[in-house]
Each structure stands twice: as structure tokens, then as C-alpha cells.
Amino acid sequence: MKYQVRYSKAFKKGLKKLKNNQEILELTKAVIIKLANDETLEPKYKDHKLSGEYEGFRECHILPNLLLIYQKQESLLILSCIALGSHSEVF
């Protein structure tokens, strides 16, 4: 992997809510592995830059109502997973 992955408390909390849904956990893991390997996500994930308070971060849609907010720190090669949840949960 190109990037080391770090998880915030908010991300871990969001992940804990999904612990009983193995299919969604596997999908989330697959997306994180792609990001950690510096692969481009398919268009279905709607990966895009955020602005305002979240400038410097990116968001992708793992599912229509399941978002991953993350940041790649090039100098340290760290992929920081910031939040996981619906729009109302992460914003």
C-alpha cells in the first residue's frame, strides 16, 4: 500500500454502527484499500473534493447514503479516514 491508513474516532464510531452488516463492511474495506493504494475510484463512488470547513478533504459515496470523508497527506503518505455515515451524521 502506498498510504498508511489512520482512522479517527468519528470513523471508528461510524464503523461500529455497521458491525452487523458484513456486506457493507467489506465494501467499505475495499474502498479504503483502493484509496490506500492510490487507485482512482470508479465514478459510481462520486469521489469529490470538499470545500468550506472541510477544505483539503475528499468525500466518496460507498452507498447512496453512506459517505466516507478522507484526506490524503502526500508528504506523510497517510490516508486519514475522518468520518463514515449518512449526510446528516457526518455534516
Automatic annotation (TrEMBL):
InterPro entries: RelE/ParE_toxin, RelE/ParE_toxin_dom_sf, Toxin_YafQ-like. One of its GO terms (molecular function) is RNA endonuclease activity. This is Type II toxin-antitoxin system YafQ family toxin. The keyword Metal-binding does not apply. The active site is at H87 (proton donor). The keyword Transport does not apply. It holds the Pfam family YafQ_toxin. One of its GO terms (biological process) is mRNA catabolic process. Gene3D superfamilies: RelE-like. Keywords: Toxin-antitoxin system.
